[in-house]
Amino acid sequence: MFVDRAKIFIRSGKGGNGAVSFRREPFVPEGGPDGGDGGKGGDVIFEADENMRTLMDFRYKRKYEAENGQDGMKKKRYGKNGEDLIIKVPVGTVVIDEESGLVMKDLKKHGESFVAAKGGKGGKGNTKYATSTRQAPNFAEAGGFAKERNVILEMKLIADVGLVGFPNVGKSTLLSVSTSAKPKIANYHFTTIDPNLGVVKIYDTSFVMADIAGIIEGASEGAGLGHRFLKHIERTKVLIHVVDVSGSEGRDPKEDFDKINKELEQYSEKLLKKPQIVAANKIDLIGEDSEEYQDFKAYVEEQGYEVFPMSAPINQGVQEVLAAAADKLQQVLAEPQEEDDYELFDFEKDENDPDYRTVTVSYDGNSFVLHGKQLLKIFNSTNFTDFGSLRYLYKYIEKSGAIDQMKEMGIEDGDIIKIEDFEFEYYDEDYFED
């Protein structure tokens, strides 16, 4: 099964906590601090792999977590860094941050990669907090938080030439006679549900050709599987527009031609601007000298397109169509390639969260609840049996403005302040003042 869209949850590794430790050696009864730093948490990395063809694996596993950093140890030993998690995806996969809807990365080449979630930094051991006036710090820094997010993986086929047209006009047949691909072919609509790829070898060159499922009216607005099919045409450089010129199913070839181009234009004007070759298929049923074909040819040529008569099942005119496609492709490749117009995810803003140091206060009816990312990190680093560590926590809360906020909200002595699941009583006194 061809799966071209998936949503997964990713989480980087948490940073290891710094260690609180003191030298304990013979004849050194009051050894100094020797707690080592914690290790960095592992990153979550996406990497494009040309050996993958589908996002099927992500239907069965939706949660991916990198390894946490190891806590610091005594004797100034650092904790081991968490192992990075590398998630391999097919070439042509667009990674999107679900919350913002912005593109994090468009992985177009084999081996291309990027970090989607950075691991938390390792916390400092108590060795780093020793000063001339604080020679035995009894606290250390907690490891940095893990980064977690939901991401959407959207695969767009990377093919040089795309086959477009109504269902059952002969696209799959053309692919099968031009390449070694073996698409499912039958005389009913929507035979092709999943795109098929094949390599065309002609003269001294080759190119990848994709059979895109038949487009119907309203596809650009999402009718049927319209958006799913049309997005696979976006990366193609040349289009072969296959039309049943015989009208064997009771449709007008000129109307079919116009309707397909209208759907391409409504989905994206860029699609209609791509070089397009028109393959008038099933010509064997009416002949090249017929009034129907000559009328269709004149109509299409008036709009600036080349028309090639073809009968894919008997391989009539196929080489001419492929040669024209190869020639158009070489012309396109010789020109500067236009980049996809995406609104990109801001990694710098994500890394430097402006709200990281903000402390907010709320009242739940029983206690004043404090929230804040840096507050929580300092709180997790606090040794509640050490005066210096407690004082550092209090001073941070005070400097953040949270004490003033709570006073404005009417806090009184004996009221409860809550951080996470920990509660303590408030007293308006200078206990922590210098």
UniProtKB/TrEMBL annotation:
Q: From the UniProt record, which GO molecular function terms apply?
A: GTP binding; GTPase activity; magnesium ion binding
Which ranges carry the OCT domain? 348-428
Organism's domain of life? Answer: Bacteria
Which EC number applies? 3.6.5.-
Kindly give the Pfam families that the UniProt entry links to this protein: DUF1967, GTP1_OBG, MMR_HSR1
Q: CDD domains given for it?
A: Obg
GO CC annotations? cytoplasm
Listed binding positions for GTP are: 165-172, 190-194, 281-284, 311-313
Report the residue ranges that make up the Obg domain in this protein.
1-158
Keywords in alphabetical order, please.
Answer: Cytoplasm, GTP-binding, Hydrolase, Magnesium, Metal-binding, Nucleotide-binding
Gene3D superfamilies per the record? GTP-binding protein OBG, C-terminal domain (3.30.300.350), GTP1/OBG domain (2.70.210.12), P-loop containing nucleotide triphosphate hydrolases (3.40.50.300)
Location in the cell: Cytoplasm
Q: Tell me which residues make up the OBG-type G domain.
A: 159-330
Give the InterPro entries listed for this entry.
G_OBG, GTP-bd, GTP-bd_Obg/CgtA, GTP-bd_prot_GTP1/OBG_C_sf, GTP1_OBG_dom, GTP1_OBG_dom_sf, OBG_GTPase, OCT_dom
Q: How does it assemble?
A: Monomer.
Give the protein family: Belongs to the TRAFAC class OBG-HflX-like GTPase superfamily. OBG GTPase family.
Q: What is the stated purpose of this protein?
A: An essential GTPase which binds GTP, GDP and possibly (p)ppGpp with moderate affinity, with high nucleotide exchange rates and a fairly low GTP hydrolysis rate. Plays a role in control of the cell cycle, stress response, ribosome biogenesis and in those bacteria that undergo differentiation, in morphogenesis control.
**Which NCBIfam families is this protein grouped with?**
Obg_CgtA (TIGR02729), Obg_CgtA_exten (TIGR03595), PRK12296.1 (NF008954), PRK12297.1 (NF008955), PRK12299.1 (NF008956)
Provide the protein name.
GTPase Obg
Question: Where does this protein come from, organism-wise?
Answer: Lentihominibacter faecis
Q: State which gene encodes it.
A: obgE
